[in-house]
Amino acid sequence: MTLELDRKAFRDLSYGLYLVTSFKGDRLNGQVVNTVIQVTSEPPRVAVIINKKNLTHDFILKSQVFAVSVLEESAPMAFFGPFGFKSGRDVDKLVKVAFKKGSTGCPLITEHSLSVLEAEVIDRVDLGSHSIFVAVVVSSGVLKTGRPMTYHNYHEPLKGKSPRNAPTIEPPA
Amino acid sequence: MTLELDRKAFRDLSYGLYLVTSFKGDRLNGQVVNTVIQVTSEPPRVAVIINKKNLTHDFILKSQVFAVSVLEESAPMAFFGPFGFKSGRDVDKLVKVAFKKGSTGCPLITEHSLSVLEAEVIDRVDLGSHSIFVAVVVSSGVLKTGRPMTYHNYHEPLKGKSPRNAPTIEPPA
After folding, report:
1. CB contact under 8 A, B7 and A140
2. Are B100 and B113 in contact (CB under 8 A)?
3. Lowest-pLDDT range, A28-37, A152-161, B70-79, B126-135?
């Protein structure tokens, strides 16, 4: 079977939807990502993919820590949209959002979040446009029970679009 | 906010469910994974996490290629269960399954698959128990339209358990 490269196939890959946050000095920032995965069980490690153009990438490079908040399925676009479509270079994305600082100093977003975790970076894979940050989870907790938002939920019922820096963005045909 | 490390938080991370296949000489093998993600758009690259104990890991190391078949939501456990709970060292997992060889030589499983892709490894991150294989997608196609199986579907409606080599396995309390 000889196939071309049909990017529609990539749409069948499944993801959650998360807010990833970090800090630099006393500045906080965060962004939406679809790519948080657990990569080992012992020790518990996760990976996240971040576009190098994003301010959160700079902050993680500098602080070597990040936090993840798992969006609940009912989180409204008005809440998390600014985390995907605005830059922390232009606005303080955390100013209107409920959060608490965790043990790493990263903001743990407590609004519309099912669970949170904090992680310390142990490796970075340079992919050109993006980095994979591999990190050891140092704290985690469940804030409430519920169904997590998925990337499919976001694209279908909410008619969401991918930010231009997402690894899943489809180039113009 | 100071949190302990509560692994229940990890259960809120979302994944799909996939069959990842490779080959070594004239031997074919494959396994279930939940960790296939797109990591860049240009060029289209994916990452997959594989336990080093698994035969598929050996095959990918040797051949430097793998294929991914996206399971459809209605795929029965009887079909894909053997890919997770049996080893290719003991049985030929492909013998009862419909597949075609792709341009890389990897088997593309055409039964209960929505989409397939083939990828050439460009980097490997050694995580001790697991490897992250980063790979360029060289062919992909949609076989049928439908809803993809998610890891949540597998755990809840199908009451599936994680194979002991999964990155998401929870150690005994």
Report:
1. yes
2. no
3. A152-161
Number of C-beta neighbours around residue A95 at 10 A? 7
Kindly determine whether residue A40 and residue B127, on different chains, have CB atoms separated by under 8 Å. yes
Burial B75-109 (b: 16+ CB within 10 A, else e): beeebbbbbbeeebeeeebbeebebebbebebbbb
Q: Is A39 on the interface with B (CB under 8 A)?
A: yes
Q: Is the per-residue pLDDT at A159 higher than 70?
A: no
Say which of B40, B137, B168 has its CB closest to residue A167.
Answer: B40
Residue A91 distance to chain B (closest CA, Å):
25
Contact, B138 vs A9, CB < 8 A? Answer: no
Taking alpha carbons only, the member of A66, A41, A118 closest to residue B128 is: A41
Which pTM does this prediction carry? 0.94
| CA–CA–CA angle B38, B17, A124 (5° rounding) | 35
Q: Minimal CA–CA distance to B117: which of A118, A6, A165?
A: A6
- Which of B40, B127, B168 is facing A130, going by the closest CB pair? B40
Contact across the interface for B5 and A101, Cβ inside 8 Å: no
Asked whether B65 and B22 are in contact (CB, 8 A), the reply is yes
